[in-house]
Design goal:
This protein has two domains: about 230 residues, Spore Coat Polysaccharide Biosynthesis Protein SpsA, Chain A, CATH 3.90.550; about 55 residues, no CATH class. The protein is globular and about 55 Å long. A hairpin with a 2-residue loop joins β3 and β4. It contains nine helices and eleven strands. The strands form two sheets. Strands 3-4-5-2-1-6-9-8-10 form a nine-stranded mixed beta sheet, sandwiched between helices. With about 300 residues, it is α/β, with parallel strands linked by helices. The longest helix has 18 residues.
Length: about 300
């Protein structure tokens, strides 16, 4: 099954996208990896060929850049990016949207098999208990679907929107996710400018992720769900590692954080290992300095760390 991947970036997230692209390259990924970007296209030095201003060739894999100048908050553009890849690639059978703060661990062949089983998602690690069928959030989400003329299936897991894989035949899910996202924007009392609004009692506290979970309730397509371990929220990631917290690895000041009792997590080394691939968004001196910062912080962490909360 021909399966392609895409991401969406702005600002410094191009560094994360480079690590993601390198991890895809190492996983055996073939074909175009689409990078939708706000602002200027990243100018990455790489062991590859710039075949065009918007296309970097890396052997069997290529990176293709597509400008996204929509005014909507960037995270809400995920379903639009999925649909755009299907439109650009008529032979593509499935597309995975992957956040730019993720690096892949599994072989791409295993990811393709996962997507062949249904809409591919991972359980979220943020909620300690997923909203049950009669939880106020779940009831409000069902009402939202009813108001849109859709029925809601029983679904209690809560999923992270950092990785979403969809087969072409399940594109109704993409369309519904996009409609719900547009509805969230239209009904918001103020412009959505961040990943969170209000508080968790709001049915769309995490606008893009909650909209995705509602869309999953409103379609009949099978869901192929991994638990939080799929993204590394519980131990090392089986399929990928998602650096969902802040600061992001490329912005972290490891020694300063270690002196406050917060040494780097073991999984963070995966991010830096993936910046040593064919795409090099950081110069040699900068990468060496970050490696030293990381190593010193790890050493500090052997002797000093805050006890778990």
């Amino acid at each position: 099954m021909k399966t392609l991947a895409c991401t969406l970036i702005s600002g410094s997230y191009h560094i994360g996208a480079a690590a993601l692209a390198n991890s895809l390259h190492a996983s055996g990924y073939e074909g175009a990896f689409y990078v939708f970007h706000r602002g200027p296209r990243p100018a990455w030095p790489a062991d590859g060929t710039w075949a065009a201003p918007d296309r970097l060739e890396l052997g069997p894999m290529s990176v293709r850049f597509v400008a996204d100048d929509d005014a909507q908050f960037i995270a809400l553009r995920k379903p639009a990016c999925l649909q755009a890849v299907f439109d650009l690639e008529p032979a593509c059978e499935a597309v995975a949207f992957i956040d730019a703060d993720i690096v892949m661990r599994a072989r791409w062949s295993r990811i393709e098999h996962w997507l062949s089983c249904g809409i591919a998602v991972c359980g979220d690690g943020w909620l300690q208990q997923t909203p049950s069928e009669h939880h106020p959030l779940r009831v409000q989400w069902r009402r939202t679907l009813q108001e849109m003329g859709r029925s809601a299936r029983s679904l209690t897991p809560y999923f992270n929107s950092g990785f979403v894989g969809v087969r072409r035949g399940d594109a109704d899910f993409i369309a519904l996710w996009r409609r719900i996202s547009d509805r969230v924007v239209a009904n918001s009392a103020q412009p959505i400018m961040g990943t969170h609004v209000s508080d968790r009692t709001d049915p769309f506290f995490i606008p893009d992720q909650d909209a995705m979970n509602v869309a999953l309730m409103g379609v009949e397509a099978p869901i192929s769900a991994l638990g939080p371990e799929g993204m590394g929220f519980s131990g090392f990631g089986t399929h990928m590692t998602h650096f969902a917290t802040h600061p992001k690895p490329w912005l972290a000041r490891y020694v300063l954080r270690a002196l406050r009792g917060m040494p780097p997590a073991a999984a963070e080394r995966q991010f830096w290992d993936n910046l040593r691939g064919p795409i090099r968004p950081l110069g040699k001196a900068s990468l060496a300095w970050r490696a030293l910062d990381f190593a010193i912080a790890k050493a500090i962490g052997r002797f000093y760390a805050r006890p778990p909360a």
